[in-house]
C-alpha cells in the first residue's frame, strides 16, 4: 500500500483531500450536545379520577395498570405514584428499546384495562429522564395587575400567543408553564337565594349542563344540496349564562354570581432580582429526543425580540439556559484540542530539529481529525464531551503513528538513501510494529463499542471516535506521510541540530548505562516494580469514586418541603422569605422560585433555582456558598417547620430530586418497610457521611371525612351519590358542569360555594328531595377530622420509598454507597429489598464495564500479539506493562486529590493501548537484532538505544497534547482534568516501564520463549 502511495502521489493527495472535504462538511452538520444521547425510554401513564383518595387510586387504577404492562418485553422497572385524584405509572425500558415501540406496547396493554365511567381515559406520554428544560423564559407584566381581568388577559396572552410560537420551534417537544392560570367561568350561588326559592346546587348544575349545549343534529339532503343541522343553545357571553332558566322563570343571574375568572391557583412562580421580586409565568422548554439543543436555544433567543415587540406591556427574560454551559464546555475542549496539537508538534520539532520533517508529521493531525469527523457523521454521533475528549486524546495517537514512521524514514535518509528509497524502506521496516500498535489499540476499544445502557452510550461514543481516529491515522501514515517524505523530506541538519545533538547523545549514554544496570539486576527490578504496583492498589481505596464529578456551574437548587395541608398563600409567604434572604448573598445574580412545579401541582413543595455570578468573578466557591446557606436556613426550617435541602445541579438531571445519593427501598409488608426505613435513616444520620437526608414520603394530609347517616338520608329520599355530588359541586371545582366557547376554544364552567374556608360552610349546604323539601346537609352527615395518606409509591409493584441525601465534605459517592451496602445487616429487615439508584447505579455499571472491557482487551491483545509475533510467551512481555501503568494514573489522581470517575476510567482503557505501543517498539527491534544473530543482552541494548528517542518523543508528545485537559479550568474542567491527570501520570510511568522494565522482562522470558518455540517450529 505504501509503495502504491509513493508511486501515485496525486491519488494519495486526493485521498487526503477527500478526508478533509468530508470532514469539514461533517463538522458543519454535526449536532452539539453535552453528552451522548442517554435519553432512557420512559413511558408514563397518567390517569385522573376526580375526588378519589390515594388508597382508592392505588386499588382501582394503579394496580391494574401495573399488572397490565408488567409483561412487556425489555421492561426494566415500574414505578408509580397514587395521589389524590391521580395515578402516575412510569415504565422504564432498556436503553436500546426504541421509545416509539415502547409507547405503542404500553398503549396496547393499557387500552385493554377497564376502570369504570367515572375514571378519565389514561394519558400515555413519552418522557425524557434527562428532560430538564434546556432553556426557560420568565414573563411578567411591567406593571402589577390591577384586577382579575388584567390577570386573565396576561395569562391568556402567554398561553395563546407565546407558548404556540415556542412550540413551533424545530426540536421543541414540550413547553411547561409554571404559575399559569387557565381561564375558567365560575358560578357562585347565593345560599340565601337558594333557600328562598327552594333550590340546590344540583339544580344549578343540572340546568347549566342541559341548557348550555351545542349538539349536532345530522343533515338535510335533497337531490342537489345538503345542510348540516346544529342545535345551538350555548351561551355566547357571560350575560347569556346568567339568562339560563334554572326553575320557575328564575334565571341563573337571580340566584348566583357568574364570573369570568381563572382556575384556582395551584402553582406560583417568582423571579428574585437584587432589591425586588416579580410574580409571573415560567415557560420551561424541553426538547424531543435527539434534537439539537444549541439550535433550539439559538432559535428561542432569535424569537425573543419578536415576542417582546408583540406586546410591550410584558417583560420577557431568559432565566436559565443550559446550552450556555454546553457551548462553553465544547468550546473549551476545542481549544484544548488545538492547543494540544500545537504542543505535540512542538515536541516533535524539539526532538527531530528538522522543520520539513516536523511539517510532514504535523499534517497527519488535521487529515486524521477531519476524517474522524466524517466517520462520526456516518455513525450518527454528536459533538459532545465524550467524542471531543476522545479526539483530543487521539492527537497523541495520531502524532505517535506519524513519529514512528517519519523518524524511521529520517534515519534512512541519514544513512544516505535517496528520498524515495528512504520513504519506502522506512515504512516497510516499521510496518510490522505499526500493525501491532494499531491492532492493540483496536483490541482495547472494540469490546466496549457494544456495551449497553447509559454507561455504554458514553463508552461507545468514546470508543467509536477513537477507533475511527486510529484506523484513519494508520491509513494516513502509511500513505500520505511516506508520499510527502519521498518528495520534500531531507536529512540536512541545522545549526540548532548540531549544537543540541550532544545533549541527546549524552542522554542516550546515560540511558544505556542505566539499562545495563537494570539488566544486571533484572530479577530484583521486576520484583521491585511488582511491589510498587501492589502498593499502588491501596491508593484505589483512598481515591474518591464518582460517576460524573460535581462542578462549579454557578447554579444550584433549594428544595422546600412543607407539611401537606398548607395553603398556597402561606407557602408563598414562607418561600418568598427564603428567596428574599438570597438578596443578602453578594454572589447571587438572581433566583427563581417555583411552587407546585410538578404535574401533580403539590403546593407544599417549592424549588428555588439560584444563579451565581461566574466562578472567576467571585471569591467563594459554590460549595462554600452552599454550606453557608445550609447553616443560615436552619433557622427558617425551624421557624416554619419545613425541610430545606440544597442540591448542586448535576451534569445529567435525574428527575425531580437530583441528590447524589439515591436508594429505593420496597416491600410487600408495609410495616417491615417502615421499620427498615427508620433504621436506615438513623444509621445514615449517625454516620456523619450524609447531609440533608430526606425521603419522598410526605406527611399525612389533614382531611375531613364525611360519614353519611344512611338511615336519615334514606328517610328523606337521598342517595349517597346525591350527597357526594353536592359536596363536589360546592367545594371541588375539579369537575366542569358545562363548557363556555369563545374564539374556537372551550373553557370549563364550574360551580363553587361562595364560602369555603371553614367547616360551617359545609354544614350550611342544602339538598332538595323528590318531595320538594329542602334539607340541610348537617342533618344527614357526621364529620370526622383525620389525617389522610398524601401519596402511595410503588417500585416494581411493591410499596416503596426513595431515600435521598447529599454527601459530607470529602466523602465520595462510591465511598458512601459502599458504606451503606456493607452495613446493610444493621438496617435491612427480612422481606425488605433495596436498589441503589441515580448516579450510584451508573457508577456500578461503570465499574462493571471497566472490568469487562479490561479483561476483553487483555485477551484480545494477547491473541493479536501472539499471532503477530508467532509466539505464546512474548505477548506477556508487552501485556505486563498494561496493569503496571495504572500505578502512575492512580498516584497522579491521589496527589492531585482528584476522583476516579467515568471519564478517568475511559482514560485508563486508552492508557492500556498506548502503553503497549512503546513496549512493542522495543520488542520489535530486539527481535530483529536477535534474528541477525546478535546476543540477547546486546539486542536489548541496541533496541533500547534505537528506540529511546521515538519513545521519549511519542510519550512527551502525548503528554503535552493532554496538558490542556489536565490544566483546564471553567466549563467541563471537573470531567476533563481528572482524565488528563490520570493519562499523564500513567504515560509518565509507562515511559520508564517501556525503557527499563520491558527489557528486563524480555531478558527473563526470551530464553524460555525459544524453548517453547522449539516444540512447534
Automatic annotation (TrEMBL):
Keywords: Membrane, Transmembrane, Transmembrane helix. It holds the Pfam family ACR_tran. One of its GO terms (molecular function) is xenobiotic transmembrane transporter activity. The chain crosses the membrane at residues 332-352, 359-379, 385-410, 430-449, 461-484, 519-540, 848-869, 876-896, 902-926, 951-975, 981-1005. GO terms for cellular component: plasma membrane. InterPro entries: AcrB_DN_DC_subdom, Acrflvin-R. This is Acriflavin resistance protein.
